[in-house]
Design a protein that fits this description.
135 residues; alpha+beta; 2 domains; three-stranded antiparallel beta sheet
Length: 135
Amino acid sequence: MRPILAASLLPLLAAGCAVNPEAQRQAELRTEQELAVTLAGRTAGTPLRCIPNYRATQMEVVDDRTFLYRDGKTIYLQRPRAPCTGLANRSFTLVTKQYGTNQLCSGDISQLVDLRTGMQGGACVFGDFVPYTKP
C-alpha cells in the first residue's frame, strides 16, 4: 500500500516544486528594467576576469542571478554561472574566501551564509565582470 501512496503523491510534489513560467518571465523583465535604469548612459566594456576586491564593499544585489559592484564612475555587472538562491531576498550574504590574492575573479566560489543562523546555505560561482562606464 505504501508504494502506491508514494507514487500517487509524486505528481503533487512535482507540481509544488514547479516554477511558474509567467512569474519567472515577469521577474526577469523587472530585473532587465532595473538594470536598464541603473546602466543608462553607460557603455559596456570588455568583460574582465578579475577586479580588485576592495570594490566588493560596494555590492548591490539585483536578483539571485545579477549583482553589481560600484567603483567610482564604473559599475561592474556580475552574473554568476548559476543563481545564488536566497541572496535577493536578503536572507543570505556572500562570503568569499581569498587565499593570497587581492582580487575577485571569474571562477571564484562564494558561500551563501544565512544572516540569522550563520549556517552555510549553498554556493555560487562568479562569471566574468562586465564594466559599464560613462563615455
